[in-house]
Design a protein that fits this description.
The chain has about 150 residues and is an all-alpha fold. It has one domain. It contains seven helices and no strands.
């Protein structure tokens, strides 16, 4: 993968919608009385980053980190960490055609056009009551999902 693509110039409506909801873990944890400061999807995010770093074929380590830095600074600056890391990773993977934005939207519970499927496509995990960062992490961490590019 080349680092030449300016991922900050790529607009992704699905991720913009997620970021605008402002459903960050600190607020959600407080709202639902959860005392753990670490979001439940953080381990999936860490595993995805480690898998990408080890393989290096879908998205090179330095490219991923540069994309994350630029996107967190320029596009998703209003989001706290680790939400900014999650959305920046998804943005980079979509902008570089590793995963498909439409598939990510369907896995979050709606299509890119806004309709909601009758059943979520996640088979091993329940869909969160309010699709957002957790559903994005799950969608990005399932290899072989429809719409994912295979190396």
């Amino acid at each position: 993968m080349s680092d030449e693509l300016d991922v900050t110039a790529v607009r992704l409506s699905t991720l913009e919608e997620v970021a605008q909801r402002d459903q960050v873990w600190s607020r959600m944890a407080e709202k639902y009385g959860v005392s753990n400061p670490v979001p439940p999807w953080k381990s999936s995010l860490d595993g995805m980053c480690e898998a990408l770093d080890r393989q290096g074929t879908a998205l090179e380590l330095l490219t991923r980190r540069h994309d994350e830095d630029r996107l967190s600074e320029k596009v998703y600056a209003a989001l706290p960490y680790p939400e900014s890391q999650l959305v920046a990773l998804a943005h980079s993977l979509i902008a570089r055609s590793v995963i498909d934005e439409a598939d990510s939207a369907v896995r979050r519970g709606r299509s890119a056009s806004g309709w909601k499927p009758a059943r979520p496509r996640l088979t091993r995990l329940r869909r969160p009551a309010s699709p957002g960062f957790a559903a994005l992490a799950i969608a990005a961490s399932h290899p072989g999902s429809p719409g994912r590019a295979t190396p």
